[in-house]
């Protein structure tokens, strides 16, 4: 019997991440300052909340919320708060020789909402794969967790590669939505995004699921199911989460007392605010303030 001949196709790698050097998620106080550095690998800085001052070579600029800057190897760079506002920043550094990365050299890009979930996945898998204590800008080596979930390190790399490839497609104005979501998923994403916007628009007052249902003209069960599917948390849980995140920012800015922050964010009482804060942050508001104070 004659053997059938098959041709094995070698997969082309557009972007291949050889090594991950550091992963950070920083919650900067309003007076944070870094000393600046340069190194022989790539670095990405993403402003998740607020804005930060970036020095890139001899050029200084403000990195706005939702923007990402690429720092090519051996380029001097620095980061600091603006002296008035707290900010949350994701930073990852990595080694790659892929020629496609040349496109990103010194680019500042506004990240589309549909790709922000991949950043969250990179952070989540990073926490699963490595020991990431309180953010330390002096961290020089990732220490693997002995009890990490299977494949966590590989998923950090794969999620980062996917993010970069999809971002490259986005920059080249290709239609990636059709390749990522079915029509049902698109609809759920649309509804969930509307809910998310309503919650964020009512950050400093109160809105209920019933009120959201009335405004969007969909049943509460349908809205809750779609939101949970997209964001993996309930509507109320997310609403509390963003209020606590805003509370953390206000605490770091040190312009209001804990009681005033509780009132600003429309918690029923300061005691209830402190209880919910501790549930989400694992420390009281006062303990959190002490943990982020600049030495």
UniProtKB/TrEMBL annotation:
All residue ranges annotated as the HTH araC/xylS-type domain in the record: 193-291
InterPro entries hit by this protein: AraC-bd, Homeodomain-like_sf, HTH-like, HTH_AraC, RmlC-like_jellyroll
One Gene Ontology term of the molecular function aspect: sequence-specific DNA binding
Annotated coiled-coil segments of the chain: none
UniProt keyword list: DNA-binding, Transcription, Transcription regulation
SUPFAM superfamilies xrefs: Homeodomain-like (SSF46689), Regulatory protein AraC (SSF51215)
SMART domains named in the record: HTH_ARAC
Record keyword Transcription present: yes
Keyword Transcription included in the entry's annotation: yes
Protein name per UniProt: HTH-type transcriptional activator Btr
Gene (name only): btr_1
